[in-house]
Design brief:
5-stranded mixed β-sheet; 5 strands; about 160 residues; Tscrpt_elong_fac_GreA/B_fam; 3 helices; alpha+beta; about 20% strand; Chitinase A, domain 3; Tscrpt_elong_fac_GreA/B_C; Transcription elongation factor GreA/GreB C-terminal domain-containing protein
Length: about 160
Amino acid sequence: MTGDPEPISAQARRALEQELADLRDERRLVAGTLRESSASAGDQADQADQLRRADQLGRLDRRIEDITERLREAASAGPAPTDVVGVGSTVTVRFPDGETETLRIGEVAEALDQTLVTADSPLGRALLGRRPGDTVRYDTPDGPATAVLVSIGEPTSS
């Protein structure tokens, strides 16, 4: 990633917003159980349970903060670039065997999407900042590989 705020696709935004809502609901539940049980002093098992819930609350707070910041950055980044590959771009690449695929450069929040290549994957990192016609080199479990960036945007017919 470039260090500048990165755009986010509409699908990733929805997924992050849903995760944020779910985390806030879970946080309310956990915080409620902490308040209820803190009124009565208990044995060591109760104290251990309180510590576990306090730790869970801290993890939830950190994830809520991370998602909130990511959404804020995405809002200031604007739409995905169309002249160079960035997070949120749809790209068409051609592999050495002639196979052409249309992929989206996205984030983990979109992991169920079969056309997703995450920006921190080897192919995703290789594509970031590239322009149509560029050949990218990246590592795979089977060794080094290459692909040609055919286009940025909707699929082209070739």
